[in-house]
Amino acid sequence: MMLLAVLSGFLLAVAVPALYRVAGRHIGWVLALLPALLTAYFASLIPAISGGESLLIRNQWMPGLGVSLDFMVDGLSLVFALLISGIGTFILIYAGSYLKGHKDLARFYVVMLSFMASMLGLVLSDNLITFFVFWELTSITSYMLIGFNHEDAEARKCALQGLFVTAGGGLVLMAGLILLIFITGSYSFSEILASDLAIHEHGYYTAAAVCILVGAFTKSAQVPFHFWLPNAMAAPTPVSAYLHSATMVKAGVYLLARLNSSMDGDALWSNSLMFFGAATMFTGAYLAFSSTGIKKVLAYSTVMALGTLTMLIGAGTEKAIIAFVCVLVAHSLYKGALFMLAGALDHETGTKDITKMGGLRRSMPRTALITCMAALSLAGLPPLFGFVAKELMFESVLNSPAWSWGLLAAAVASSILVVAVAGLVFLKPFFGPARTTPRQPHDAPFAMLIGPAVLTLLALILGVAPFLPAPLVLDAAVSSVYGSGVQTALALWHGVNVPLILSGISLLAGSLLFVAWQRLHPTLHAVNTAGGRVGPEAGYFRFMLGITQIASWQTRVLQNGVLGVYLLILVLVTFGLTGYTLFTRHGFQLDFDFSNGYFYEFGIALLIVAATVFASVTRSRLGSVASVGVLGFGVALIFIHFSAPDLGITQLLVETLTVILLVLVLFKLPPFVNLSSPWERYRDLTVAVFAGAIMTLLMLAALDIQYFDSISSYYIENSYGLAFGKNIVNVILVDFRQLDTLGEIFVLGLAAMGVYSMVKLRAEDQHKA
Amino acid sequence: MKTNTLILHTAALAIMPLQLMFSVFLLLRGHDEPGGGFIGGLVAASAFVLYAFAFGAESTRKLLRVSPRDILAAGLLFGLASTIPAFWTGQAMLTALWWEVPLPGDGYLKLSTVLIFDIGVYLAVLGTLMTFVISLMESDE
Known about the structure:
The structure holds 2 protein chains of 2 kinds. By secondary structure, chain A is mainly alpha-helical.
């Protein structure tokens, strides 16, 4: 059931094109049924885990490699799963209206559903390898979603940037996870979490922690990798609302939270989380305040929230983890809503620039009301859940085990800025004098407002009654991050205490900043432009440029278009390295033993040698090809002689077809001319003789060395017993080593595509010219 | 490229069906005797190549009915599909499953996911080679 729940997104994605033909413009509502059902299913699991237990659902995948499709449901993963499927439901409905009539709507839903399924797999996986597979799937699907408008060069560039940063981080993460597997000897999160092994005392620990941190930081857009996230706003708004606020960027945070209880108590882990988290929080808040595009503002405020989450995990106290879960939920609710509302504004007015909007409250009253609520939650004002989360954040920063004052300064500065940002998002577009926008504004349609409305309503309910979720999932989620059972007690009103005073200060200072925004803005803009030249994004571009430059340099050197040179390099490198190893490990030995040979074996050998000599001296191309064919037939004869009929037949057929293919190609070449100088020919001859000699020595060496016991007896014994086949060669190909064969037929397919595109595309180019 | 010799035309028409039947024969007996999907695919491809030499690429396309690339894709799909059934019976992916279907009389038919996989290899080899040959032959038109 769990397996089906996770994979159902992929299955439905396959059916989307067909469904689209039937459902037409109602496709969003139809597809939203799946995440709605998933939400219900995950909600039904709540009672099973609310006491802090975790469910483990086992499925085999590749047991020989330690890879399984095991799923673990505990408080943390269930909160994520509920957010993913719950918000996903509204996003799918919203997208149907936002992208109404778009020619690629079906493609959009295919990728979106695949993304949703990958994300569910990511948060529910118990196996580290499976987790990584889903992690990479989210990178790939989000690449396709950011670049959805692929005819736009800017969108393509941003998509590629997101992919490079997240997939590059993914590679580092893989190294980290493998090190973690080495340290713990387990492939499973639940086993790692349950073990009381002191991970941070192991020799690999530093490397593993750094790799995992880099992986999580790239995914969750922490400084200095934060730049890809705002650029990802090139995606259609539903994508931004879903991936870049509620789900994908939280994957890194999820990983940090998942592993936190195992890493707890280590200074490297918690200090880097607090440091980078606080830096990201402040950078995000500042950049949000200084942007003008509504989606950019929201994107940077997401960066800020992600920084807050990271910082809270780093602080690691019980209070901090409670704050972590609350900020996580509060942020997903208001940010999902705000992005959808921003999309509605963009959709109805035709502009994304908040300086060009004003006075929209009259023409879009319902949108204005919902935006007001969501912005209050963003600013952290009562009675929304954002307020509860922010108070908890202040409180845990005050009690942080280290750097309390530094973190507090960053937290207060960020929340001042975020109050101003909330003002920008709500007051700028809806109040002030009405401005003419590219489109005549009117309220957004029902499908676009239902999502934000439900999400903000939830934020309001949770704000007024924050004690509601505690016994259901909150306690369980906090316990699974903290590592031991925790009872939470949330309330909207805590009495007058330090956090409340800090909130008051933020509100006041933030309002002042908002009023001064108009005047500050030119300065901020100048500062950001200057900073952009030396910032991490500039570094990214220099790095990418460096890669292309090195690539073009080495292409000029190694692949200059002369096929002879390619071959020369390949042969020299291969045989040079093999020869080196052979001589240093084995030494030079040459002992032929011809005593057991039959006369016809010598005959075949002679035939092969003669064919080789003829192929290299003849001036006729056809003759050369044919004699290479003779050589191959000679080898086939040897196979048959040594009773390997399968190999013999295959060799014969392959040789025949190779000759035919070569003839087809050679047929088109101009007549034989001699382009190489005598020197080059002697060089080639030397290299060829060298390669042949090494190969001969290698074969002779292979005959008398045996490093491992031969496995052929295993195949002979088990071929019929286990695989019901008498032809061992075939049994090995299609059963014992089926995965290899599967890989090989895919290689065949790739080769066919390569030839096809080379021949066809060239023909088309010539046709155009 | 197309030849107009009567001998090749007649020979191709006579030999080709035999080659195709032989290729299927090789495919099916492959598990117990020399043969198998790879060899079968090569024989089938050589049958179509012979036909292509006699009658040209265009007629070969018509004879094949589907594009060689689709044959290739179908082969890959068969190959992948054969790995799935084991999964649904709770065994590890790629585990071979066997079914013995009794036939009237004494014999029985051995069916298996391995056979499905071998058919996939057969189609993939055939599709790849036909893609090579046909696109190369068409490139000078």
